[in-house]
Amino acid sequence: MSTQALSNISSQLSHLVGNLNIEPISYILVLIGFALLLIIIIGGIIYGLTKAARAVPSMSTKEFILFLLGIAIFLVLLGILLP
User: Fold this and answer.
1) Ordered alpha helix ranges (H), 1-83
2) Per-residue model confidence as pLDDT tens digits over 30-72
3) Are 71 and 59 in contact (CB under 8 A)?
4) Residue 22 reports pLDDT greater than 70
5) Whole-angstrom distance, CA of residue 74 vs CA of residue 27
6) CB distance 75 to 67 below 8 Å
7) Which of 9, 80, 45 is nearest to 72 (CA)?
8) CB-CB contact of 67 with 59 (8 Å)
9) Contacts for 59 with CB less than 8 Å, ≥ 6 apart
10) Range of 32's domain?
11) Domain assignment of residue 14, yes or no
12) Is residue 6 part of a domain?
């Protein structure tokens, strides 16, 4: 393999790399990041719900009423913010 052939191959590779559009790659990386963040949030919600489901049977009456009050406040705020 001569130096000229190596030069031709390297110039062709540099043209291929130079013609790549980097913008779609950044969009893909951002989408992957948001997908991972969404998976982490969903996992945290599922973990919290299972912890709450285990804690409810052992709650006292006062704690259970406060738990229901917290759910009610969350649902009211969600109903106000969504529309």
Assistant:
1) 3-18, 22-55, 61-81
2) 889 999 999 999 999 999 889 988 888 888 999 889 989 999 9
3) no
4) no
5) 34
6) no
7) 80
8) yes
9) 67
10) 21-81
11) no
12) no
